[in-house]
Specification:
mainly alpha
Length: 213
């Protein structure tokens, strides 16, 4: 009986994860087009193939669904692992040279932007009119700045920052350069390749904050 209960529990957990994923996928589609403000949770439920009560049970509110969608889209999965604990961060920290660190981050950045740009553009647009979306947007801005502060501190350890840069000002440059709208304009609008975008990111940031070799 114990084995059967464990099996049933695992099956229910798998079903719950599938339902959560279906709702997030539906939100990713509808919050982009027709948009967050124009999408009712009943529409999300219909797109996901579940009852609207299920959406409320899993996420609680439209704001919470948007927040979860942003987090999952940035991370690339629904795992409860902070970005600072993810493999790409360990990879960057293991490298010794500042440019090598920027090159590794550029790979991660391009992968993330390819996944998140439509959702983040939708969030930015919704934030101009919706208080809930605006709160999530401000939270995301703060978290991005905090992440770049950690990255700047790691780069500073190499001793390669330009003399005029503190960790704080280097973090400001990193924060600006990693904005998803740069990827959107250069890759989606201007047709740059991913490789060209990565080179642009590394060359631009290195020229701005690293001392000449």
């Amino acid at each position: 009986m114990a084995v059967k209960r464990r099996y049933e529990s695992a099956h229910r957990q798998e079903q719950a994860q599938q339902t959560r994923r279906a709702i997030l996928d539906a939100a990713a589609t509808l919050f982009v087009d027709p948009g967050y403000a124009a999408t009712a949770l009943t529409a999300v439920a219909a797109e996901a193939g579940v009852a609207v009560q299920t959406v409320y049970k899993v996420f609680g509110s439209k704001k919470a669904l948007l927040s979860a969608l942003v987090d999952v889209t940035i991370a690339g999965d629904d795992e409860d692992v902070a970005l600072a604990q993810r493999q790409f961060v360990a990879d960057i920290r293991a490298l010794s040279g500042a440019r090598a660190k920027l090159e590794r981050y550029a790979v991660h950045l391009a992968e993330t932007h390819a996944r998140q740009a439509p959702v983040m553009l939708a969030l930015a647009g919704a934030a101009t009119a919706d208080p809930d979306a605006a709160a999530i947007w401000r939270k995301n801005l703060t978290e991005r700045r905090q992440g770049m502060a950690m990255f700047a501190a790691d780069l500073a350890v190499s001793g390669e920052l330009r003399p005029e840069h503190t960790v704080e000002t280097a973090a400001d440059v990193l924060w600006l350069a990693m904005d998803f709208r740069n990827w959107h304009w250069l890759v989606r609008e201007r047709g740059w390749s991913t490789e060209r975008f990565r080179r642009w990111y590394v060359d631009t940031v290195a020229a701005a904050i690293l001392a000449s070799p």
